[in-house]
Amino acid sequence: MTTDSTTDSVARVEPRRLEDEMRDSFIDYSMSVIVQRALPDVRDGLKPVHRRILFAMHEAGLGPTRPYRKSATVVGDVIGKYHPHGDSAVYDSLVRMAQDFSLRYPLVDGQGNFGSVDGDSAAAYRYTEARLAGFASELLGDIDKETVAHTPNFDDRLREPTVLPSALPNLLVNGSSGIAVGMATNIPPHNLREVAAACHQLIEAPDTTLEGLMDVIRGPDFPTGGAIFGGAGIREAYREGRGRIVMRAKADIEEGRDGRDRIIVREIPFMVNKTRLVEQIAGLVRDKKVTDISDLRDESDRDGIRVVIELKRDAVPQIVLNQLFKGTQLQSTFGVIMLALVDGEPQVLDLKTMLEHFLEHRHEVVERRTQFELRVAKDREHVLEGLKIAVDHIDEVIRIIRGSAETEIAAAQLRGAFELSERQADSILNMRLARLTGLEIEKLEDELAKVRVRRRELEEILSSRRRRMEIVGQELSALVDKFGDERRTEIVPDTSNLTDEDLIAEERMVITVSHTGYIKRIEPHVYRSQRRGGRGIAGMGTKEEDWVEHLFLASTHDYLLIFTTAGRMYWLKVYQIPPARRTARGKPIVNLLRMGKGEKIASIVRAREFSEDRFLIFATRRGLVKKTSLAAYRHVRVGGLEAINILDRDRLIDVQLSDGSNDVILATRLGVSIRFSEEDARVTGRRTQGVMGIRLRRKDDVIGMVVVRREGDLLTATELGMGKRSNVEDYRSQRRGGKGVINLKVTDKSGQVAAIREVTDDDELMFVTRNGVINRQMAEGIRTIGRNTQGVRLVALDEGDELVDVACLIDPIGTDPDDDEVEVEVGVEESVASSGSEE
Fold it and tell me: CATH code for 250-329?
């Protein structure tokens, strides 16, 4: 006996390679995961577990209008009848279908704690209750009319649907995500109205192109709102089935009570944990990667999300927001993979194909439903026709029934007498006597007429595909009216290539640099226009040994080319200069640049672009000039570069832009000037010292340079506040390197020349003294007189003070020639310490 058993066992053993067994077993497992767990069906957009949960709730009578039932009951029904897996997996799926921040249109109406956008988990299923949401009931509509195929459940006791009738395009409107073996799906949710409109377009014109559908469906519509950054990823996903969509939070910028700006985050990207997001922002502040945030609060409640980000006083909100987008989940990416099961096989689908599969499914549902209803109508018509024959021959029918010994005999005689079917004969035998009243007979005839009309309608529907598709569209429109809502997610243009500069408003700013190297920017309206001879207002709080040395107007987007007396150049953007109040000293420029020890600023040139046809004209104290293309200074290193070769005992005093065809005027401290064409100075490289511009007298130095660009006058101002305007034409053009002509008669009353500028009547000037007092006045108020004169009083100076610079503002701002008030300040704080920089 034992021998025979052993022989049979050996006979059943089949040799098989291990790798073949592993491969086949893994493929079987993979297909099971793909088909039975991880991927949704393209027709109803559901995975098996979701479909079984909804069907079990439908079978239990948990409709939208019925009382809630414990979630534990639902989970038990699903596990016991259709889905023999873990209860936690089933409950987690049910919870997600109830979360309005996970599904665009929730499928389960939950009561109790079903989790939150902060990542809080739902309460245990013994505490929560659930029923079908109205949206889900439409996925199950007409399921009892043989609209979809059914299959035996896991133990062959019951039957379950292989797909739901799904009157709504659930796969697109709610999306889906899942990880299978070797593949994954990640379909974003969409707005029902837009998807339905695309379906209607395909019904009316099946040859509609994918681009035509994308005009209707603008893009995903996430339940948490937010914004989609750019449309390139959307178009790629709709065309190829794969794409990358950048999501951003929605944030408003508000001004707080203390005048500081704040960022209010009201909507966050889809599937982002709000608590973790707040922690990320706090981490950036803690690590000093974002330095302009002073406070962070989460004020969210049941009415919605509200995360408050308080900013420091001088912070630029758009720049801070841009930093948060780059460093936190305020900006997140949704990787679209439009993978779904088509006839049991996974396929990556484009938008049009996905809509076509849904519409074909709905067409099949309508067709099968119509066939079912036609069978019911024909059966009812057949029965009613039999009853009608019986009513018309009631006496004969009664005679046959009374004369029959048994029911079977009566049925057989009725069939023979009136040519009835077995179904009709049974109906007659089961008819109540009350149906023989006149009113009931009339109702019978009306019902028969209606059934016949309905039968013809159903036959017409079955004979026309166009008619069936119209029904699909009509039913979809009715559901859109019921469940449709406005789009929540905004689609904004892609500005990912924008720099911080692009987020800065372009504004004119007054830039001031002190003798000891403090720099600041301030809005021009701070300074009130005054009449000639006024005392002016304080423009910078300075220490006793410091004074304002440079002042000019520039745009926040301008480049500042900063040249030092040693001949080096540094690069800076105007918006990078910290803003400050009028009387504040500003920031040490060494904190913004990597200047060498002992370097002082000689000139600052504004530039927008480094073009080949623009030139820099250099002037040194010893009378040398140099002309170099602006393009030679395009590539600036952090540590600066050598702009001009400066000789011993010389220093750079000024650098100006030119178009290559201007005249140049050099002026000296002792009142001499020379005018020559810049074409006399050939273009040289960056590391050159230049050529002779003016031959200086003993103990004289060059104090200024003007590149003549306009038909104006030459303004000359002296250290003691005297000065004049002289017509530029009074200065004859000479060859470069000459001794020049008299520019201003220097006397003890006037003092030596402090600055020269080219001006017209429309120019507005700022006169700067060593003690930091600024006088602002129009150039037209200064008299034009001859070249060889002493001039008139321009600025009234305090004792011991002297004029050090004149700035020309070409575009006058807020000019008020009738305002002669002294030290009047408009809308600017006065009390600022004169020592230390403003924070």
Answer: 3.30.1360.40
- Name the architecture of domain 504-809: 6 Propeller (2.120)
Tell whether the model's pLDDT for residue 836 goes beyond 50.
no
Query: What is the per-residue pLDDT across 788-797, written as a single tens digit (0 to 9) for each?
Result: 888 888 998 8
Q: What is the overall mean pLDDT for the chain? A: 86
The predicted pLDDT at position 805 comes to: 84
Domain extents for the chain? 47-165, 250-329, 358-483, 504-809
* CATH code for the domain defined by 47-165: 3.90.199.10
Mean pLDDT check: name the lowest of 13-22, 568-577, 810-819.
810-819
* Residue 467 CB contacts under 8 Å (≥ 6 apart), including other chains: 460, 461
Quote the CA–CA distance of 604 and 705 in Å, as a whole number.
13
Query: Phi and psi of 326, rounded to 5°?
Result: -75, -30
Interval 746-756: pLDDT, tens:
888 889 999 99
Q: At what angle do helices 465-483 and 351-392 cross, to 10 degrees?
A: 110
68 labelled catalytic: no
Cβ neighbours for 353, distance < 8 A, ≥ 6 positions apart = none
Full 3-state SS string of 166-207? CCCCHHHHHCEEEECCCCEEEECCCCHHHHHHHHHHHHHCCC
Fold of 358-483: Topoisomerase; domain 3 (1.10.268)
pLDDT of residue 240 exceeding 90, the answer is: yes
Catalytic residue among 29, 68, 125, 127: 127
